[in-house]
Design a protein that fits this description.
The protein has one domain. Strands 4-1-2-3-5 form a 5-stranded antiparallel beta sheet. It is globular and about 35 Å long. Helices cover 17% and strands 33% of the residues. It has 101 residues and is of the alpha+beta class.
């Protein structure tokens, strides 16, 4: 179900803007944060995993990222799609894409 990529690297015509909708800590792995970004309609998502190696390892998390269309997964659960859509809309209203969250 999950698409994982450490570098979204979008810049071409297939780039899709997705908004941060969820930040969770992995139960399976120590020191791992899972960032989930979704399209405004909540139908597609991008998942990014980050290891927290130290407090000096600074990597900003932005309100939105542009990712290649091929790196997006599909949200099958209607309730999750609705939740992602609501949160993506809220983030887009409150933040600029480059805002550090």
């Amino acid at each position: 179900m999950a698409q994982t990529d450490t570098d979204a690297g979008a810049g071409g015509d297939d780039a899709v803007r997705v908004w941060l909708v969820e930040r969770t800590y992995s139960d399976d792995e120590q020191n791992l944060i899972i960032l989930t970004y979704a399209t405004p309609d909540g139908e597609r998502y991008f998942r990014k995993e980050r290891a927290l190696t130290s407090f000096t390892d600074v990597r900003d998390t932005t309100a939105a990222v542009d990712v290649d269309d091929g790196n997006l997964g599909t949200v099958d659960d209607p309730d999750m799609r609705e939740q992602y859509a609501a949160e993506a809309e809220r983030m887009a209203e409150v933040h600029d894409p480059d805002d550090v969250i």
